Automatic annotation (TrEMBL):
Residues 273-608 form the Xrn1 helical domain. This is 5'-3' exoribonuclease 1. The gene is Xrn1. PANTHER family: 5'-3' EXORIBONUCLEASE 1, 5'->3' EXORIBONUCLEASE. Residues 1-227 form the Xrn1 N-terminal domain. The keyword RNA-binding applies.
């Protein structure tokens, strides 16, 4: 599936889906899952366009470790941290992997060739071949050892990792990363004591993670991903995660948007409307526009509004089906056939447009191009004499109709309408035949061929549904064509019997030989390499040095079909058989499947964990990590045991998991140009229009102030955030809390806060209007929400966190901490009186709970701010609200002498005119020489020159307002220069 296209389309249609991740606003998650391959690619080759880019392996590993640390620190999972690296994939995925790797190798080769043609000198070190990020390579084996080292190191040294169970499913464990994660989630759900309120966060870049997450039917599920920018110049990806903007895509909102999308059908069906079943069918419809396992149906493209067509057709046919199509991963073939039959009208409509356009073209240029007008390539027509004759007969009929058109009476025209329909159907069939002949290379498009196409396609859909809902049902099955059949040719499928043989996954070296191009042969053991390059190899045709691609209606080159032959599994394994005995012991170890590893902290365990690369990464002297292996089939759940979570619709609100509930609104689709990304959207947006409460206009600011001032409310609907109200205004009057600066108090129940009233001046009234206008525009242009007229604005502080406080009775309690910044929110988007889920911080009741003996504490007071210490037994003083801590006080350097003599060591700076007089030049030249001076070799035609050189000293940068410490310094608007600059300039002028 076109990942950015689907992500962009879905984000623009449902504008509130994603939100930028901000500190203090990150929801609590129980489980964090990482689809690791995206991180590995990001850290190893961040910019494929730069042929000069080189990176060392230890830098790759260090960057991956750092990325993992940052993601863990952002999300802070409470129970499970699951890292899944892609293992050997099912055969169905390998065709796509093969095409992708052939294309990346060719693109890299072409870029290097172009660089050399330009005369560029490339580094002598070998470039990083991204194809090595494939199970079984030496790189992946080394990475796996380093990931094991990293997990042991973090659990042993980082307290935040010590209460979490860490899973590492490496490249040796078969299966794609995201599907190994889903297998784990299914197995957890199948347990009798599974908590339906488990909060999941899945990191990854693939669009199909949206569908995978929805198959879980879990209420609290979010996707974490880097910001995607559309439009403008392609920029290099920032490898440093601190510089990356992360987005959370909320599947809780996705579920509600899907409910809105299909709500028109609620009153039209005779069976129960079930949003869980609607979501299952929505997932099925997404497969029809293509994904990693099957090509898209002809002319069904996301950017040509294919998905709305699928949805409209579904809503039109659902009342006639008597039930849903996707029954928990099982395809109801009879209902699916009815849906496809209704959808096949699209084929005729699309051809009708082509047919009319080409008929017009034919009328302008004559019958010479009639074969093309009917959709037949002249080249193909010549190849098959019989087809040519048929085309000529059609041409004569069509020409006769055209010639006599003006002479016919209305009666004759009416009589000839059936003939026109027959002609259209004939041409339509010929149009499709040409597609199969040119795209699939068949000579005769027989009924048996079409029946086989239909069966293969339906079998593919069922395999994918199983894969998403139940895991791999066949390792060896794959879709055997580069193209999909026409919708109108998928029929007579209601009685098909679809069965799959489970088989077994490829071994790592078998997959390597199946997916790698000859250009990446060095990633394989030497005994296999000749199979890819030797003309005597029995499988040499699987490694073409050159190949064609076909955009097939797509726009971007990366979306094109890579036309390389499919691997014959039997021939591949036979060719490898004679080479297997030549494998070295280390290679044999790499060519195995192994189990997933589960790690946890054990303070009683203590041993030395050796580093896999001692020169770069130190050994762990005191390792406190235990682990066990999880058998390969431990998480397999029988199809019949696959549980569906029943969502409790009256459940508590979970902070950070947004919902469209709580505020009354209506919804509809409209092209409103909502700007989710860098440009306004072109398609339809799901608009939410807040329904004005009858009492709103009657509400006076005094009443609103008395109900919310000093109280807790939720703002920024639908991404609700907790806030404390400090002021309320109607544009003329403002009620605000009268309290000391920095007060954090909430006024609970009927407690009346100290309140003051002020009347707004003209400037403040103008600011109030600007606030309202800005909020209204942001809601409409970014979120697709119409808030209507605003009469009251609430000013509030957002929640930034919680802090432990000690009361007079010696009890510890949590006090909410509010931002110092006060922000405006329109009253109709403010939600009160929500019963929110309590996170469980309240387990700590006493000072002894907070600081148990032996725990680590840090000093926040003077004089030893920041020092680490260990809490001692404090039973004799704890009743006084005190604890004993032994601090480790580091030795501070003695700086007294340096401070007293700093005038001797400090750099003295002089203005430009002093340097100029000493050097005998003007102050202007001093300024220019210390900055940038560009010179170029010019000519009469091009006086500025093609190649410019900077001959300045680059010691100051005016535009960037940057200085070089020790040389230059800006004081106000004047640049100052040190004696070091004087020496440099003197030498510069001499030369």
């Amino acid at each position: 599936m076109g990942v950015p296209k689907f992500y962009r389309w879905i984000s623009e249609r449902y504008p509130c889906l994603s939100q930028v991740l901000k500190e203090h606003q990150i929801p609590e998650f129980d489980n964090l899952y990482l689809d690791m391959n995206g991180i590995i690619h990001q850290c190893s080759h961040p910019n494929d366009d730069d042929v000069h880019f080189r990176i060392s392996e230890d830098k790759i590993f260090a960057d991956i470790f750092h990325y993992l640390e940052v993601l863990f620190r952002i999300i802070k999972p409470r129970k499970v941290f699951f890292m899944a690296v892609d293992g050997v994939a099912p055969r169905a995925k390998m065709n796509q992997q093969r095409g992708r790797r052939f294309r990346s190798a060719k693109e890299a080769e072409d870029k290097i060739k172009k660089a050399l043609e330009k005369g560029e000198t490339l580094p002598t070190e070998a470039r990083f071949d991204s194809n090595c990020i494939t199970p079984g390579t030496e790189f992946m084996a080394r990475l796996h050892e380093h990931l094991k080292y990293f997990v042991n190191m973090k659990i042993s040294t980082d307290k935040s990792w010590q209460g979490v169970t860490v899973y590492l499913s490496g490249h040796e464990t078969p299966g794609e990363g995201e599907h190994k994660i889903m297998e784990f989630i299914r197995s957890e759900k199948a347990k009798p004591h599974h908590d339906p309120n488990t909060r999941h966060c899945l990191y990854g870049l693939d669009a199909d993670l949206i569908m995978l997450g929805l198959t879980s039917h879990e209420a609290h599920f979010a996707l974490l991903r880097e910001e995607v920018r559309f439009g403008g110049k392609k920029s290099q990806r920032a490898c440093a995660p601190e510089e990356t903007t992360f987005h959370l895509l909320h599947l809780s909102l996705m579920r509600e948007y899907i409910d809105y999308e299909f709500s028109p059908v609620k009153d039209k069906i005779s069976f129960e409307y079930d949003i869980e079943r609607i979501i299952d069918d929505w997932i099925l419809m997404g497969f029809l526009v293509g994904n990693d396992f099957i090509p898209h149906l002809p002319h069904l493209h996301i950017n040509h509004d294919a998905l709305p067509l699928l949805y409209r057709t579904y809503m039109a046919i659902l009342p006639e089906l008597g039930g849903y199509i996707n029954e928990n991963g099982h395809l109801n073939l009879k209902r699916f056939e009815k849906y496809l039959t209704r959808l096949s009208d699209f084929d005729r409509e699309h051809f009708s447009e082509v047919f009319v356009d080409l008929k017009w073209f034919e009328s302008k240029v004559g019958n010479k191009y009639l074969n093309e007008a009917a959709g037949i390539a002249a080249e193909e027509a010549r190849k098959n004499k019989q087809k040519k004759q048929k085309a000529q007969e059609n041409a004569i009929c069509l020409a006769a109709l055209e010639k006599n058109k003006g002479e016919m009476t209305s009666k004759i025209v009416v009589e000839d309408e059936p003939e026109d329909d027959d002609l259209f159907e004939t041409e339509f069939r010929q149009y499709k035949r040409t597609y199969y002949m040119t795209k699939m290379g068949v000579e005769v498009v027989s009924d048996d061929f079409l029946a086989d196409q239909a069966e293969c396609y339906v079998q593919a859909i069922q395999w994918i549904l199983h894969y998403y809902y139940h895991g791999v049902q066949s390792w060896s099955w794959y879709y055997p064509y580069h193209y999909a059949p026409y919708l109108s040719d998928i029929h007579n499928i209601g009685e098909l019997k679809i069965k799959f043989e489970l088989g077994k996954p490829f071994m790592p070296f078998e997959q390597l030989l199946a997916v790698l191009p000859a250009a990446s042969k060095d990633l394989l053991p030497k005994c296999y390499q000749h199979l890819m390059i030797s003309q005597d190899s029995p499988i040499i045709e699987y490694y073409p040095p050159d190949f064609k691609t076909d955009l097939n209606g797509k726009q971007q080159e990366w979306e094109a079909v890579v036309l390389i032959p499919f691997i014959d599994e039997k021939r591949l394994l036979q060719a490898m058989e004679s080479c297997n005995k030549c494998l070295k012991e280390e290679e044999k170890r790499r060519n195995t499947h192994s189990a997933c590893l589960m790690y946890w902290y054990d303070k009683d365990a203590e041993f030395q964990y050796l580093s896999p690369w001692p020169e770069k990464f130190p050994a762990i002297e005191k390792c406190h990590t235990r682990y066990k292996t999880i058998p390969l089939d431990a998480w397999h759940v029988e199809i019949t045991h696959n549980k569906i979570t029943k969502i409790n619709k009256s459940a508590l609100y979970f902070c950070g998991f947004p919902t469209l509930k709580h505020i009354k609104h209506k919804f509809y689709l409209r092209r409103s140009g909502v700007q989710v990304f860098q440009q306004s959207s072109h398609g339809e947006n799901m608009i939410l229009e807040i329904i004005a409460d009858k009492n709103w206009k009657e509400q006076v600011v005094e009443n609103v102030a008395s109900s919310v001032l000093g109280k807790r409310v939720f703002v920024n609907w639908p991404h609700l955030e907790e806030a404390r109200v400090v002021a309320v205004s109607d544009g003329e009057t403002k009620f605000y809390l009268e309290e000391p600066h920095g007060t954090q108090k909430l006024y609970m129940g009927n407690a009346v806060p100290p309140t003051k009233v002020a009347y707004l001046a003209d400037k403040e009234q103008s600011m109030w209007l600007k606030d309202v206008q800005g909020i209204s525009e942001h809601y409409q242009k970014r979120k697709g929400i119409i808030i209507h007229e605003t009469s009251i604005v609430v000013y509030a502080q957002l929640l930034t966190g919680n802090r432990y406080q000690l009361n007079q009775n010696g009890e510890v309690y949590l006090e909410k901490q509010w931002s110092k910044q006060v922000l405006p929110f329109v009253y109709q988007t403010v939600v009160k009186d929500i019963k929110a889920f309590d996170s469980g911080f309240s387990n700590i009741k006493t000072l002894n709970d907070l600081f148990p003996p032996g725990s680590t504490a840090f000093m926040l007071g003077s004089p030893y701010y920041g020092c680490m210490g260990e809490v001692q037994d404090s039973h004799d003083v704890i009743t006084e609200g005190r604890i004993r801590v032994v601090f480790n006080i580091p030795c501070e350097p003695q700086l007294d002498h340096l401070i007293q003599n700093q005038h001797k060591y400090c750099v003295k700076y002089n203005p430009a005119y002093i340097l100029a007089s000493r050097l005998g030049v003007s102050g202007y030249l001093v300024s220019r020489f210390t900055g940038s001076i560009f010179i170029g070799r010019g000519s009469k035609k091009n006086p500025h020159g093609d190649h410019k050189a900077n001959v300045g000293l680059n010691l100051k940068f005016n535009k960037k307002n940057e200085e070089v410490p020790g040389y230059t310094k800006k004081v106000g608007n004047e640049w100052m220069y040190s004696s070091a600059v004087e020496q440099l300039l003197a030498e510069y002028l001499e030369r």
